[in-house]
Amino acid sequence: MRTIAEWLDAARQHGSLGAAALDWQARERGGDPSIPLALMRERLRVMRESAQAGLSPTLRSVSGMVGGQAALLAQAPFAGRFGLAGRAGVYALSIAEYNACMGKIVAAPTAGSCGILPGALLAAQEEAGFSDDELVMALFAAAAVGRVIALQATISGAEGGCQAECGTAAGMAAAALAQLYGGTPEAAAHACAFALMNTLGLVCDPVDGLVEVPCVYRNVGGVSQAISAAQLALSGVACPISLDEMILTMRDVGDAMPSSLRETGEGGCAACHACRRS
Fold this sequence. Notes:
Helix content: 55-70%
Structural class: mainly alpha
Strand content: under 5%
Order of helices and strands: HHHHHHHHHHHH
Number of strands: 0
Radius of gyration: 18 Å
Oligomer: single chain
C-alpha cells in the first residue's frame, strides 16, 4: 500500500481509512487484529499522559527556552473561548513542550511534530464525547496517510523542511478528524491534502539546534491547520489537487529548499539576530 489511491480502494471495502489500515496491519502481523489494536491503544494512552504532564507550570527544558507555556495557555482568561482549536492548541503545546523536556511522547510522525495529532484528537474527544475506540480508529486513519507520505516523500525535517514534520502531522490529524466526525474516506484524503497545501514550504530552522523554538509553537499552528482542513473537507469542499499529487508536490518543494532551511540551523528563525547567542 504505497499510494492514497490504493488506500481509498481498500477503505471503500472496509468502510473507512482506519478500518482499512487496521486490516492491513493485522495481515502484516499474521492476521490477528487484536495485536495492532492493543498497540494503538497503548499509543493513545501515552499521548494522553504526555498531554497532561506537559501542562505542569514548573516544566522547563534544559536550555530554559520552553516549558510552562502550555500551562499559561490553559489558564489564560480567554482559555476555552476559541473552541476546538483553542483546546487542541493547549494540548499540542503541552505535548511538544513535554518532548523538549525529555518526557515520553509518541512520535506522530516525528518527535518535533508530536503534539499535533494527539492535540487534535484529545480535544475533539473532550468537546464531542468520542470514545477511545473511535480515537484509536482515527489514529489508524492517520497512520495510513502518514505511511504514504513517508514512502512517497519524507517525514524528515533535515530532508524536506518542517513541512515534512509539522505539515505531515497536520495532514495526518486532518484525515483523522475527518474520519472521527463521520466523513468519508475521500473526505479524509481531501482534508489531508488541504493541510499539506496550507503548510507547503514550511522550513526547518531550530534555534540553537534544539527541537524547541520555533518547533513547539509550530505544533500549535499545525493543529489549527488540521482543524481548518478537516472543516473544509467535511463541508464538502474538495481539494483541487489530489492527495497523491500533493504528497509528490511536497517532496519536490523539499528537494528545492536550500540546505540552510533544512534543520542545519543556518537560516530562518535559527539565523535571526535576536536568536543568536554569543
